[in-house]
Amino acid sequence: VQLQASGGGLVQTGGSLRLSCAFSGGSFRNYKIGWFRQAPGKEREFVGAINWNGGTTRYADSVKDRFTISKDSAKNTVYLEMNSLKPDDTAVYYCAVGRPPLSAYDQAGLYLFWGQGTQVTVSS
Fold this sequence. Notes:
Elements: E1 2-6, E2 9-12, E3 17-24, E4 32-38, E5 45-51, E6 57-59, E7 67-72, E8 77-82, E9 91-98, E10 111-114, E11 118-123
Parallel strand pairs: 2-11
Antiparallel strand pairs: 1-3, 3-8, 4-5, 4-9, 5-6, 7-8, 9-10, 9-11
């Protein structure tokens, strides 16, 4: 299984970015695709996740109402649309694939495969 995250960059406060996570090499039925981020000196934290089958999403409180996760089944790609970006959103963003239960979408240890990360920098 391979995941390729892309779309990061430098944006001003209040701006928007769309990250993509393209994956291949397996059947992702019943899998969840999660987005996590890690800022310098901080632990990796959950951003959001989507159930590949039904499209159910979950978000961290810190990004709810600003970030949206969607999927394109034909392209095996998941998107993270980020709006109203803040300097605190600056981090390396990772996508991951796993089968966490609904109650544990935010548990990084339950994701099996990880992409390489893409840097998002929000200037003040």
